[in-house]
Amino acid sequence: MQAACLELALTEAVSHLTRGLEAISTLPPSSERDAGELELRTLLGGALIATRGFASPEVEQSYGRARALCRQSGDTPQIFPVLFGLWAFYLVRADLPATRELADQLWQLARSAQDSALLSVAHRAMATTFHFQGEFVLAQEHEAQGIALYDPQQHSSLALL
User: Fold this and answer.
1) Which residue segment(s) compose the domain that 158 sits in?
2) Which of 2, 13, 20, 21: CA 20 to 30 A from 39?
3) What total of structural domains would you count in the chain?
4) Which of 93, 117, 139 is the last residue of a domain?
5) 57: number of CA atoms within 13 Å, CB side?
6) Dihedral of the CA atoms 133, 135, 136, 141 (nearest 10)?
7) Given pLDDT bands bounded at 50, 70 and 90, which one contains residue 7?
């Protein structure tokens, strides 16, 4: 019963977010409109992963557009979850060059931010990417560093990633 309710809620979320994007597209171009679209697309990407799967073309479309909006607006905190969503999409699609490029970008962002939560996620992305590329020593090193940074009190929400 709970799973069915969750699935229904996520399907409804996709519908509302899609309608929100349709509505926002009618507004004149502005930085506020772009910020609103970025927020909606980032949320939609996660909802699409949950309802249609990591490898759904809609996931790439939503996160791809969100990435373009991030580039357009410059330095934005949404870039990390957007890149992580794209990383997961390409990982499941087994596009290892794209996966590696995105893992590197996550790693650079986390290092420059010096945020332990972001660093933990970036190490996980690097470890998984290296594992899929058969570079097991590098994978193990990143995994160990990510685990060392993980604090269950501070980073409990990361357990869901």
Assistant:
1) 95-161
2) 2
3) 2
4) 93
5) 0
6) -110
7) confident
Residues 6+ apart with CB under 8 A from 91: 54, 99, 128, 129, 132
pLDDT in tens, 102-143: 999 999 999 999 888 899 999 999 999 999 999 999 999 999
Exposed, middle or buried by CB within 10 Å (0-12, 13-18, 19+), for 26? Answer: exposed
Let me know whether 72 and 22 are in one domain: yes
- Alpha-carbon dihedral 50, 52, 55, 58, rounded to 10 degrees: -110
Q: Which amino acid is at 68?
A: A
Short-list 157, 158, 132, CA closest to 146: 158
Q: Which residues of 121-142 are buried (b: 16+ CB within 10 A; e: fewer)?
A: bbbbbbbbbbeeeebeeebeeb
User: By three-state DSSP, how is residue 155 classified?
Assistant: coil
